[in-house]
Design brief:
Elements lengths: L4 E6 L3 E6 L6 E6 L1 H11 L4 E8 L2 H12 L3 E8 L5 E8 L2 E7 L15 H5 L1 E7 H5 L2 H17 L2 E5 L9 H12 L4 E2 L3 H8 L4 H10 L4 E5 L5 E4 L4 E4 L12 H14 L4 H15 L12 H12 L1
Parallel strand pairs: 1-4, 1-8, 2-6, 4-5, 8-9, 9-10, 10-11
Antiparallel strand pairs: 2-3, 6-7, 11-12, 12-13
Length: 309
Protein backbone atom coordinates (compact mmCIF):
# COMPACT_ATOMS: atom_id res chain seq x y z
CA UNK A 1 0.00 0.00 0.00
CA UNK A 2 1.26 3.50 -0.82
CA UNK A 3 2.29 5.71 2.08
CA UNK A 4 -0.24 8.28 3.32
CA UNK A 5 0.24 11.92 2.40
CA UNK A 6 -0.47 15.03 4.42
CA UNK A 7 -1.28 17.17 1.38
CA UNK A 8 -2.09 16.59 -2.27
CA UNK A 9 -2.13 19.66 -4.50
CA UNK A 10 -3.54 19.83 -8.01
CA UNK A 11 -2.81 22.41 -10.66
CA UNK A 12 -0.64 24.05 -13.26
CA UNK A 13 3.17 24.24 -13.06
CA UNK A 14 4.82 27.06 -15.01
CA UNK A 15 8.50 27.25 -15.82
CA UNK A 16 9.80 30.61 -14.62
CA UNK A 17 12.08 33.22 -16.14
CA UNK A 18 12.63 35.93 -13.54
CA UNK A 19 14.36 39.15 -14.54
CA UNK A 20 17.44 40.05 -12.53
CA UNK A 21 16.83 43.60 -11.27
CA UNK A 22 18.61 46.30 -13.22
CA UNK A 23 19.51 43.93 -16.06
CA UNK A 24 17.97 42.33 -19.13
CA UNK A 25 19.01 38.87 -17.90
CA UNK A 26 16.54 36.25 -16.67
CA UNK A 27 17.07 33.57 -14.03
CA UNK A 28 15.48 30.19 -14.66
CA UNK A 29 13.19 28.82 -11.99
CA UNK A 30 9.88 27.17 -11.23
CA UNK A 31 6.41 28.54 -10.61
CA UNK A 32 2.71 27.79 -10.72
CA UNK A 33 0.61 28.54 -7.66
CA UNK A 34 -0.23 25.06 -6.40
CA UNK A 35 3.22 23.74 -7.27
CA UNK A 36 4.72 26.57 -5.22
CA UNK A 37 2.40 25.68 -2.34
CA UNK A 38 3.40 22.02 -2.59
CA UNK A 39 7.09 22.90 -2.36
CA UNK A 40 6.46 25.28 0.54
CA UNK A 41 4.63 22.53 2.41
CA UNK A 42 7.31 19.95 1.69
CA UNK A 43 10.01 22.30 2.99
CA UNK A 44 8.13 22.53 6.27
CA UNK A 45 8.31 18.75 6.61
CA UNK A 46 4.91 17.74 5.24
CA UNK A 47 4.42 14.65 3.11
CA UNK A 48 3.20 16.07 -0.19
CA UNK A 49 1.91 14.78 -3.52
CA UNK A 50 1.15 16.64 -6.73
CA UNK A 51 -1.35 16.04 -9.54
CA UNK A 52 -0.83 17.67 -12.94
CA UNK A 53 0.25 17.30 -16.55
CA UNK A 54 3.58 18.51 -17.93
CA UNK A 55 4.89 18.50 -21.47
CA UNK A 56 7.16 15.78 -22.71
CA UNK A 57 9.84 18.46 -22.95
CA UNK A 58 12.91 19.75 -21.13
CA UNK A 59 10.88 22.02 -18.86
CA UNK A 60 8.63 19.12 -17.86
CA UNK A 61 11.65 16.97 -17.03
CA UNK A 62 13.15 19.81 -15.01
CA UNK A 63 9.93 20.08 -13.01
CA UNK A 64 10.00 16.36 -12.30
CA UNK A 65 13.57 16.66 -11.08
CA UNK A 66 12.74 19.62 -8.85
CA UNK A 67 9.70 17.92 -7.29
CA UNK A 68 11.67 14.77 -6.61
CA UNK A 69 14.50 16.78 -5.04
CA UNK A 70 11.91 18.41 -2.75
CA UNK A 71 10.56 14.98 -1.77
CA UNK A 72 7.20 15.40 -3.49
CA UNK A 73 5.29 12.34 -4.70
CA UNK A 74 4.68 12.84 -8.43
CA UNK A 75 2.91 9.58 -9.18
CA UNK A 76 -0.07 11.79 -10.12
CA UNK A 77 1.86 13.81 -12.73
CA UNK A 78 1.31 12.75 -16.35
CA UNK A 79 3.51 13.64 -19.33
CA UNK A 80 1.84 14.92 -22.48
CA UNK A 81 3.86 14.34 -25.68
CA UNK A 82 1.69 16.72 -27.71
CA UNK A 83 1.47 19.80 -25.46
CA UNK A 84 4.17 21.98 -23.87
CA UNK A 85 4.87 22.85 -20.27
CA UNK A 86 3.65 26.39 -19.62
CA UNK A 87 6.11 29.27 -19.20
CA UNK A 88 5.96 32.70 -17.57
CA UNK A 89 8.22 35.73 -17.28
CA UNK A 90 8.57 38.07 -14.30
CA UNK A 91 9.76 41.61 -15.05
CA UNK A 92 10.88 43.87 -12.22
CA UNK A 93 10.62 47.64 -12.43
CA UNK A 94 11.00 49.88 -9.40
CA UNK A 95 8.81 48.53 -6.59
CA UNK A 96 6.46 46.65 -8.95
CA UNK A 97 6.67 43.49 -11.00
CA UNK A 98 4.71 42.36 -14.04
CA UNK A 99 4.03 38.96 -15.55
CA UNK A 100 3.75 37.62 -19.07
CA UNK A 101 2.57 34.07 -19.78
CA UNK A 102 2.96 31.45 -22.51
CA UNK A 103 0.41 28.94 -21.28
CA UNK A 104 -2.28 28.64 -23.98
CA UNK A 105 -2.61 24.98 -24.94
CA UNK A 106 -0.23 23.87 -22.20
CA UNK A 107 -0.16 20.31 -20.97
CA UNK A 108 -1.72 21.35 -17.67
CA UNK A 109 -4.61 23.05 -19.48
CA UNK A 110 -5.39 19.65 -21.02
CA UNK A 111 -6.13 18.11 -17.61
CA UNK A 112 -9.39 16.20 -17.42
CA UNK A 113 -11.24 14.52 -14.56
CA UNK A 114 -9.87 11.10 -15.54
CA UNK A 115 -6.33 12.46 -15.02
CA UNK A 116 -7.12 12.72 -11.31
CA UNK A 117 -6.43 9.41 -9.60
CA UNK A 118 -8.94 8.93 -6.75
CA UNK A 119 -6.38 6.74 -4.98
CA UNK A 120 -3.89 9.61 -4.73
CA UNK A 121 -6.51 12.02 -3.37
CA UNK A 122 -7.65 9.46 -0.81
CA UNK A 123 -4.10 9.07 0.50
CA UNK A 124 -4.12 12.68 1.69
CA UNK A 125 -5.40 14.50 4.75
CA UNK A 126 -5.76 17.76 2.79
CA UNK A 127 -6.46 18.53 -0.88
CA UNK A 128 -5.26 21.93 -2.11
CA UNK A 129 -6.74 23.49 -5.27
CA UNK A 130 -6.92 26.96 -6.78
CA UNK A 131 -8.94 29.18 -9.07
CA UNK A 132 -6.10 29.35 -11.57
CA UNK A 133 -6.46 25.62 -12.18
CA UNK A 134 -10.16 26.20 -12.83
CA UNK A 135 -9.53 29.16 -15.13
CA UNK A 136 -7.02 27.64 -17.56
CA UNK A 137 -9.63 25.47 -19.32
CA UNK A 138 -13.11 23.98 -18.84
CA UNK A 139 -11.63 20.46 -18.61
CA UNK A 140 -9.16 21.53 -15.93
CA UNK A 141 -12.02 23.15 -14.03
CA UNK A 142 -13.89 19.85 -14.22
CA UNK A 143 -10.77 18.07 -12.94
CA UNK A 144 -10.70 20.34 -9.88
CA UNK A 145 -14.35 19.65 -9.08
CA UNK A 146 -13.79 15.92 -9.55
CA UNK A 147 -10.87 15.99 -7.11
CA UNK A 148 -12.99 17.91 -4.60
CA UNK A 149 -15.80 15.39 -4.98
CA UNK A 150 -13.43 12.49 -4.31
CA UNK A 151 -11.96 14.31 -1.33
CA UNK A 152 -15.31 15.08 0.27
CA UNK A 153 -16.52 11.51 -0.20
CA UNK A 154 -13.31 10.24 1.41
CA UNK A 155 -13.11 12.57 4.41
CA UNK A 156 -10.20 14.56 2.95
CA UNK A 157 -10.30 18.25 3.92
CA UNK A 158 -10.39 20.73 1.02
CA UNK A 159 -8.34 23.94 0.92
CA UNK A 160 -9.14 26.53 -1.76
CA UNK A 161 -7.30 29.66 -2.86
CA UNK A 162 -9.32 31.51 -5.54
CA UNK A 163 -6.17 33.22 -6.88
CA UNK A 164 -8.21 35.39 -9.22
CA UNK A 165 -6.66 36.02 -12.66
CA UNK A 166 -8.97 38.09 -14.84
CA UNK A 167 -6.64 37.65 -17.81
CA UNK A 168 -7.79 34.01 -17.83
CA UNK A 169 -11.55 34.38 -17.45
CA UNK A 170 -14.24 37.07 -17.00
CA UNK A 171 -15.24 38.17 -13.51
CA UNK A 172 -18.80 36.85 -13.84
CA UNK A 173 -17.63 33.29 -14.52
CA UNK A 174 -14.81 33.54 -12.00
CA UNK A 175 -17.26 34.66 -9.32
CA UNK A 176 -19.76 31.90 -10.07
CA UNK A 177 -17.10 29.17 -10.00
CA UNK A 178 -15.37 30.60 -6.94
CA UNK A 179 -18.55 30.82 -4.91
CA UNK A 180 -19.52 27.26 -5.83
CA UNK A 181 -16.07 25.98 -4.89
CA UNK A 182 -15.75 27.95 -1.66
CA UNK A 183 -19.00 26.38 -0.48
CA UNK A 184 -17.34 22.96 -0.84
CA UNK A 185 -14.10 23.92 0.92
CA UNK A 186 -13.08 23.50 4.54
CA UNK A 187 -10.46 26.27 4.32
CA UNK A 188 -10.76 29.36 2.12
CA UNK A 189 -7.54 31.34 1.59
CA UNK A 190 -8.17 34.43 -0.58
CA UNK A 191 -6.12 37.60 -0.80
CA UNK A 192 -7.84 40.84 0.14
CA UNK A 193 -7.64 42.04 -3.49
CA UNK A 194 -9.25 38.88 -4.85
CA UNK A 195 -11.91 38.81 -2.15
CA UNK A 196 -12.90 42.41 -2.83
CA UNK A 197 -13.33 41.72 -6.54
CA UNK A 198 -15.28 38.50 -5.96
CA UNK A 199 -17.49 39.62 -3.09
CA UNK A 200 -18.12 43.28 -3.84
CA UNK A 201 -17.30 44.08 -0.21
CA UNK A 202 -14.41 46.29 0.87
CA UNK A 203 -13.48 45.78 4.51
CA UNK A 204 -11.84 42.59 5.82
CA UNK A 205 -14.62 42.15 8.39
CA UNK A 206 -17.39 42.32 5.77
CA UNK A 207 -15.48 39.89 3.53
CA UNK A 208 -15.19 37.39 6.37
CA UNK A 209 -18.95 37.64 6.98
CA UNK A 210 -19.54 37.12 3.25
CA UNK A 211 -17.36 33.98 3.28
CA UNK A 212 -19.19 32.49 6.24
CA UNK A 213 -22.52 33.27 4.56
CA UNK A 214 -21.25 30.98 1.77
CA UNK A 215 -20.93 28.32 4.50
CA UNK A 216 -17.14 28.43 4.48
CA UNK A 217 -16.12 26.92 7.85
CA UNK A 218 -12.75 28.69 8.10
CA UNK A 219 -11.18 31.60 6.24
CA UNK A 220 -7.69 33.06 6.33
CA UNK A 221 -7.92 36.40 4.53
CA UNK A 222 -4.44 37.40 3.37
CA UNK A 223 -3.84 41.12 3.86
CA UNK A 224 -0.31 41.39 2.44
CA UNK A 225 2.05 43.38 4.69
CA UNK A 226 -0.82 43.94 7.14
CA UNK A 227 -0.95 40.23 7.99
CA UNK A 228 -3.90 37.85 7.88
CA UNK A 229 -7.41 37.86 9.35
CA UNK A 230 -8.44 34.37 10.47
CA UNK A 231 -11.95 33.26 11.39
CA UNK A 232 -13.63 29.94 12.13
CA UNK A 233 -17.10 31.45 12.33
CA UNK A 234 -16.92 31.71 16.13
CA UNK A 235 -13.59 33.38 16.82
CA UNK A 236 -11.71 35.92 14.76
CA UNK A 237 -8.08 37.04 15.04
CA UNK A 238 -6.01 39.57 13.14
CA UNK A 239 -2.44 38.29 12.93
CA UNK A 240 -0.13 41.22 12.15
CA UNK A 241 2.41 41.15 9.36
CA UNK A 242 6.20 41.10 9.71
CA UNK A 243 8.55 43.90 8.69
CA UNK A 244 11.11 42.41 6.30
CA UNK A 245 13.26 43.70 3.45
CA UNK A 246 10.82 42.75 0.70
CA UNK A 247 12.07 42.69 -2.90
CA UNK A 248 9.69 40.32 -4.75
CA UNK A 249 6.23 39.16 -3.68
CA UNK A 250 6.06 36.43 -6.35
CA UNK A 251 4.63 33.28 -4.76
CA UNK A 252 4.13 34.76 -1.27
CA UNK A 253 0.46 33.80 -1.15
CA UNK A 254 1.29 30.32 -2.41
CA UNK A 255 3.91 29.98 0.33
CA UNK A 256 1.28 30.95 2.88
CA UNK A 257 -1.06 28.24 1.58
CA UNK A 258 1.55 25.48 1.70
CA UNK A 259 2.97 26.44 5.08
CA UNK A 260 -0.54 26.81 6.54
CA UNK A 261 -1.52 23.30 5.45
CA UNK A 262 1.80 21.84 6.61
CA UNK A 263 1.24 23.20 10.08
CA UNK A 264 -2.38 22.03 10.16
CA UNK A 265 -1.11 18.57 9.22
CA UNK A 266 1.39 18.80 12.08
CA UNK A 267 -1.47 19.42 14.52
CA UNK A 268 -1.53 23.22 14.86
CA UNK A 269 -4.72 25.18 15.36
CA UNK A 270 -5.76 27.41 12.47
CA UNK A 271 -4.52 30.40 14.46
CA UNK A 272 -1.04 28.98 15.02
CA UNK A 273 -0.89 27.62 11.47
CA UNK A 274 -1.77 31.05 10.06
CA UNK A 275 0.77 32.76 12.31
CA UNK A 276 3.50 30.42 11.08
CA UNK A 277 2.41 30.73 7.44
CA UNK A 278 2.34 34.50 7.75
CA UNK A 279 6.01 34.47 8.77
CA UNK A 280 6.93 32.02 6.01
CA UNK A 281 5.22 34.18 3.37
CA UNK A 282 7.02 37.30 4.61
CA UNK A 283 10.39 35.55 4.26
CA UNK A 284 9.55 34.52 0.71
CA UNK A 285 9.37 38.16 -0.34
CA UNK A 286 13.03 38.73 0.65
CA UNK A 287 14.31 36.83 -2.42
CA UNK A 288 13.59 36.70 -6.13
CA UNK A 289 11.52 34.03 -7.87
CA UNK A 290 8.73 31.80 -6.66
CA UNK A 291 10.55 28.72 -5.36
CA UNK A 292 14.13 29.60 -4.42
CA UNK A 293 13.16 31.92 -1.50
CA UNK A 294 10.63 29.48 0.02
CA UNK A 295 11.94 29.21 3.59
CA UNK A 296 12.90 26.28 5.80
CA UNK A 297 11.45 25.85 9.31
CA UNK A 298 14.52 27.20 11.12
CA UNK A 299 14.22 30.54 9.32
CA UNK A 300 10.47 30.74 10.01
CA UNK A 301 10.96 29.92 13.68
CA UNK A 302 13.65 32.58 13.95
CA UNK A 303 11.33 35.24 12.51
CA UNK A 304 8.49 34.12 14.77
CA UNK A 305 10.88 34.47 17.70
CA UNK A 306 11.34 38.16 16.93
CA UNK A 307 7.62 38.67 17.52
CA UNK A 308 7.94 37.15 20.99
CA UNK A 309 11.06 39.13 22.01
Amino acid sequence: MSEPLDIVALGEPLFEFSQLPGTTRYEQGFGGDTSNAAVAAARQGARVGYISRVGGDTFGEMFRGMWQTEGIDISGVESDPTAPTGVYFVMHGGSAHTFEYLRTGSAASQMRPDDVSPAIVRRATYLHVSGISQAISPSACDAVFHAIDVARQSGVKVCYDPNLRLRLWPLARASAVTLATAALADYFLPSIEDARALSGYDTPESIVRWAHDLEVPAIALKLGPKGVLVSDGHERELIPGFKVESVDATGAGDCFDGAFLARLAAGDTIWDAARYANAAAALTTTGYGAVVPLPRPEAVRALLGTMQD
